[in-house]
Structures are given as C-alpha cells and as structure tokens.
C-alpha cells in the first residue's frame, strides 16, 4: 500500500503547478480589471479638469466684469460727490441770504407800527422766518455730513476696486492659456 515516493513527488509538483497557474491566471484577471478601472478614473479626471479650466475662464471673465462695475461705481460716486458739493454751496448761499431776514423783520416791525393789521401778520412771518433760518443752518450742516460720508464711500469703493484687481490678477495670468 505504500505509494511510490517518486510518483507522490510528481503528483505534488503537478498539483503545485496547477495551483500556481490558477493563481497566475487569477492575478492576470485582477490586473486587467485594475487597468480598466484606472482608465475610467483617468477619463473622469480628464473631464473634471476640462470643466475646471472652463470654470476658471468664466470666473476670470466675471471678476473682470466686477472690476468694470466697480470702476463705473467709483466714477458715478465721484459725480455724486461733486453734485453734493454744489448743493452744499447752494445751501450755504441760501443760509447767508437768510441772515438778512433779521433786517427784513426789523423793517416789518416798523411797518407794523404804521399798519397794525399788517404788523400782526408780519410778526408771524418773522417768527416763521427765524425758524426757517434755523432749519436752513441745520440743513447746511447736514449737507456737510452727507458730503463727508460720500467721500468715505468713494474711498471705500476705491479700496474694494483695488482689492478685486489684486484678486483677479492671477486669473489674468491664467486667462491667456484658456480657450
């Protein structure tokens, strides 16, 4: 019953050869699947890269549009500031003219002595004119504050425009390479 050692050895080597071939075939099959997966992932990454380049191009164009809008806003705020200066000058001129209302009031009081009925009416107008004079003074100061705020807003827009230009400068470098 004992088996021949040579024959056992040959069977063992044969079985070992078959197992080795089976493992080699299985490994080759897994390599093939891995290669397919890598190609699919590479294709997906290529598509994502194309979209990224496209979105960078769009972002660069949008940032340029924002800078243009900020330039326009800055120009318009400068015009508004100049107009506010003119309005402030006009209000100051009106305020100076309102300073003459005291003299008018005095003359009105003199007329009031001559014409008692007219005098009462003019006295009422005089008190209203004093109130208007006070309100015009407040309005003149308010216009000065508004003018100062517009100067601050114009400065802020200038800083924002500079910062957006700084942010969009790297996009300008990438932009010539984009389609």
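Sequence proposed for the structure above (179 residues):
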């Amino acid at each position: 019953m004992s088996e021949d050692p040579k024959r056992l050895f040959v069977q063992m080597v044969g079985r070992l050869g078959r197992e080795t071939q089976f493992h080699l075939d299985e490994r080759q099959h897994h390599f093939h699947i891995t290669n397919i997966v890598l190609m699919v992932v590479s294709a997906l990454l290529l598509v994502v890269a194309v979209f990224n380049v496209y979105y960078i191009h769009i972002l660069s164009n949008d940032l340029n549009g924002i800078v243009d809008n900020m330039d326009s806003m800055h120009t318009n705020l400068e015009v508004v500031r100049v107009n506010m200066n003119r309005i402030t000058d006009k209000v100051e001129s009106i305020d100076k003219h309102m300073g003459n209302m005291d003299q008018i009031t005095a003359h009105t009081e003199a007329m009031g002595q001559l014409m008692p009925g007219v005098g009462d009416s003019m006295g009422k107008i005089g008190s209203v004119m004093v109130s208007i004079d006070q309100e015009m003074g407040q309005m003149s100061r308010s216009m000065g504050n508004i003018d100062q705020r517009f100067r601050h807003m114009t400065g802020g827009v200038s800083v924002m425009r500079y910062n957006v230009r700084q942010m969009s400068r790297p996009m300008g470098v990438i932009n010539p390479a984009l389609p």
